[in-house]
Amino acid sequence: MALAFEEVVKLADLARIDMTDEELTSLASQLDVILDAVAVVSQVAGDDVVPTSHALDITNVFRADEVAASLSVEQVLAMAPDAEDGRIRVPRILGEAS
Amino acid sequence: MNELTQTSARGLAQMIRDGEVSCEEVTQAHLDRIAEVDGDIHAFLFVDGERALASARRVDAKRAAGEPTHELAGVPVALKDAYVYQGTPTTCGSRMLENWYSPYDAAVVERLQGADMIILGKTNLDEFALGSSTETSAFGPTHNPWDLARVPGGSGGGSAAALAGFEAALAIGSDTGGSIRQPAALTGTVGVKPTYGGVSRWGLVATASSLDQPGPCARNALDAALLHQVMGGYDRRDSTSIKAPMPDVVGAARRQDVSGMKIGIVKQFGGEGFAPGVEQRFHEAIELLAQAGAEIEEVSCPSFDLALAAYYLIMPAEVSSNLARFDGMRYGLQAGDDGTRSADQVMRASRRAGFGDEAKRRIILGTYALSAGYYDAYYGSAQKVRTLIIEDFTKAFASVDVLLSPSTPTTAFKIGERVEDPMAMYKADLCTIPVNLAGNAAASFPAGLSPEDGLPVGVQVMAPALADDRLYQVGAVLEAVLEQRWGGPIWAPLTKEDQR
Amino acid sequence: MTYEELMDFDAVMAVYEPVVGLEVHVELNTASKMFCGCSTAFGAAPNSQTCPICLGLPGSLPVINATAVESAVRIGLALNCSIAERCRMARKNYFYPDMTKNFQTSQSDEPLCFNGSVVIELADGESFTIAIERAHMEEDTGKALHVGGATGRIQGAEYSLMDYNRSSVGLIEIVTKPIRGAGERAGEVARAYVTYLRDMIRALGVSDVRMEQGSLRCDVNLSLMPKGSTTLGTRTETKNVNSLRSIEKAVLHEICRQGAILTSGKTVKQETRHWHEDGTYTSPGRSKEHAEDYRYFPEPDLVPVVCPPSWVDELRATIPQAPSLRRAALQAAWGYSPLEMRDVVAAEALDLIEATVAAGCAPQSARKWWMSQLLRQANAREVSLDELPISPQAVAELQNLVDKGILNDNLARTVIEAVLAGEGMPGEIVQARQLGVVNDQATLDEAVAQAIEANPEIADKIRAGKVQAAGALVGAVMKDLGGKADAGVVRELILAKLA
Asked: Measured between CA atoms, how close is C146 to chain A, in angstroms?
C-alpha cells in the first residue's frame, strides 16, 4: 500500500514535527516499505481472535487516596525553558483547550 | 590493564568482603579502564568518577565499621542512559534531553544504591532506545570491542560494550524488542529480559510501555542472576509490577543442571536469513545441552513469523504517544522561540530539532497505525497477533520447559551498513521480539565465535512468565560446557592491537 | 466582539426542533490526584502541587486512585447507569501546552458507567427524563494564564504562564444522549438537568461541584432539525458555560443563532464556540470540520479496572436519596407549602435557605428574605441568587436583629440594600448608620402626643371606639421618627393614650 504524500503531511502535522517536502517524500517511501512488510497482520487476524493489550493478566491496581510529597516549585521551574511568577512560561497559545 | 576489571562481579564482591581489595581500588580500576578504552568504544555518555569514588569510600567505611553490606556491595555497574538518576543528565541518547537533569531516581537506581553498588555512569543507546545498533544515538555510535568497525547491537549497545570492553563488571539494560539480548549476543555477553512486570519500570524512560522491561547485563550467568535479584521484585509505583515472589534466579544459576529438562527448538528461527556460522554454533549448543542431559525436541510456533510485523506496529504506536511529551514547553530542548511563534509552532520546531530520523520515522509510523480508519487494520490486528503468539508460547510450554533459538540471525554488522535500510535493521530483532509481545522471560548467552567471521554468537533461551530461573539454569550449564570446550570464557580482545 | 445574527426565538421554534447534548465535567474532591499523590487543594501556589507523574516527566508512571474509581462508580449508580464489569483507561492523544504528556488519560470505548437515566423536575413541576450515554474517568489539565494583549484572554496574548497544580486531578465526564422533545423548554431542561447533577453529586459528597471554581464545567451541544424530521442537524459545541443561568441562556442563544443561519439558507458549521459570560454572544473556536484525530488506544501503563457486582452492590447502598427526596424531607422539616417549596426550588434558593436556617434563622423568615426582596434584586441584576453579594449568615443575622426588635421590616430592607452595596454585615451597618428602631419611651411619648394634637378629629374617632382609625396616627408617628420605630409598639401607645 502506497502512502500518499498528503497523508504523510497530515501524519507529521498530527505528530507536531516540522518536516520539509524532501524529508516527507523520503519518509513516505520508507514507510511504504515498512507498511508492506507489516500489512500481513491484517490478513491473519480474524474476528475470532481477542486482541491483547497487556501480556499479563493483572487487574485493579490502585493506590490509596493519600497525599504524598510533591516536587518543590524550584525543582519544577529549574527544568523549564522559561518561567515567571512561579509559572512555566510558554509561547502564546492559539486556539483553545479541548 | 588491571586484572580487577576482568574479575567477575561475584569475585569482586567477595574480594572486597574479604578485605583483599578496597571498593575504592576496584572502582578506580574501572575508571582507569574507561579512560583507557572508552575513547575508542564510546560505551559511556557520562561518567562521574568523583561520585563513584565517593560511593566506593562509603562502602569501604561501612565494611570497616562492620556494618552488613549486600552480596554485590562495591561492584561497579554501568547504567543505560534511559534511566533517570539525579545528579547526572538523562539524555536517552537524544538532543531532546541533552541537558535534562531528573529531579527523581529510577526504581532500579534505588535498588542498586540499596545494594551498595557503585554506579559508574550512563551508557550509550539508540535514541530513546529506538534501534538495533546504537547508531541512532545523537551522541555518536558505540563501537563493538570485538571489532571497532562494527556495531555492538542496540539499543543497549553501550551497556553491552562496557561489559565486553571490561569497563564495568555489570550493567543495566532495558529490553523492548531485544535491546538487552541482541547486544549481548553481538558482544559475547549475557543479557536477560525478565518476565514483564518482574522489574519496576519506574524511572525507565518509556519506549513502548507494554513491551519495555529492565534487565541485567553481565559477563556470566551467575553475575547476571545476582544483579537480577537486586533489580527485581514488586514496586507499587509501577501498575504493571507483579506481586508474586521472585523466582530463585541465583539458585538456578548455581545449580548448573539440565538433566531431564525439556528443551524445545523453535522451528521458525533458522534457515533463510540466518548466517551459517550462527546456525552452526547454535546447533553445537543444542548438542552440548543434550550431552548434559537435556531432552531436545523441535517445536513449531507458526505465529512467530508474524511477530516482527506486529511489533513494528505496536511498538511505534506506543512510541508515538510516549514521545509526545517532548515538546519543548516544560523541559528539554526548545527550538524556534523567537517571541513571534506560537506554542504550537515552537513545539513543531522543537520536535524537528530534538528528534533524529529513526525517532521521527517511528513516531510517524505509530501515528499512522493509531489513526482513525487504520486502527483496526494495523494496531488492532497487531494486538490480535499478540494473542496468537501468546497461544503459541502456551502450547509450546505445555510440552517443553524452555525454548531455544539463535539470539540474532547474524553476528555484529558493520557500522553504517544498515542505516539506510530500516527493514534490514529491524530484522536483527527477529528472534527476540516474540517474548516482548507475550511478556515472558528470555536471555541471550554466549555460544562461541562464528567460524565465518570470528565474532560472538548468542543463543536465546525463552522461559514461561515467572519462570526466569530456568533461563539461568540453562545458561549456566551452557557457559560451563562452552568454557571447557573453548578453554575459558570467550572474551573480547583486551587491547586495541588485538582488535580488528 | 463578533457580530451574530439572531432570529426571534418563537420564529425558530415554529419551524425547528432543538436537540441538546450536555457534557458535564465534574472534578472529584479526592485528597490526591487521579494518578499521583499530589494534593488537589484549591488555591495553592502555582506548580507547588506537582510531581514527576502529573508533570509527565520521562520515566514516571501513573497509578489509579482507588477513591476516584469508587466516586466514579457512585456517580454512575446515582445516574442509574450500568457499571462495566471490566474496563480500561485509554490515551487520548493531542498536543496542547496545558497537557503535560500531550495525551489525556481518559476512557474511550470502554466507559466505567453507561446507559443511565435521570428524571428531572422543571420549575412548574413537570418532569423530564434525561438519558445518560456514559460517565467515564479522566484527568484534568493544567491552567494557562494569558499575558499581554488587552483582555487577558487567549486572543491577542503575547505568551502564557502555566500552572500544573490542576494537572491530573480526577475528573468524571458525564455525557447525555441527545435530548429531544423539550421544544421551547430546551433551555430550562438543560439548566434543570445540570442543577440536578450538581445537587445529586453534592449529596454524594464526591465533588465540590462549584461552577465558579471550575469543579463543575458544562459544554452545551446543540443542533436544530426541521420539525417532524428524524435526521439530526449539524451541531455546535458551546464551551465555557460557567453558571447554571448561562446554560439556559447559551441554549436559547444558540437556537436563535442557528435558526438565523438555517433560515437564510446557509449551513451551520460544526465547531466549538465560546460562551462569553456577559451572556450576549458566543465566538467561534476551533473548527471541527477537520476533527482532531485523537488516536485512542488502551493505556499500556495501567491495567484494567474490574468492578465485581458484589462491590457495586455495596456502593449502591451508599447512594443518598435523589434530590427530589431531599427536597421532600426539607419541605416537611421547614413546614413549607407545596407551592412555597416549588417556588424555592425554581429560584434555586434551596441551598441558600438551608444554610440560612443552619445559621439560626427560622425557615419561614429565611424563605421570606430570599424569595422576596433578594429574588427581586437578583432578577434586576440578572444574576442567580447565589451570585448576590450577600451570605446566608448575613440574612440570618438580619432576622436576628428583627427578632430582637432592633430592626423593623422597613429598616431591615434598608439594611439589605446596604449589605448588597458592600457596606458590611447587618450588625455593622445598623451601628454605622444608627439605624436601630427608637425604643426611648420619652421620644415615643412625645411623638405620639404630637400626632394626637395635630389630628384631633382622628383622636376623637378613636376615643369613640373606632380603633381601626389608629393606623393614620401610627403612620404620622412613623413619619415623624423617620420610620425608626416599631409600628406595633406605637399603635399600643396610641390606643393606651386615647383609651
From this structure: 8
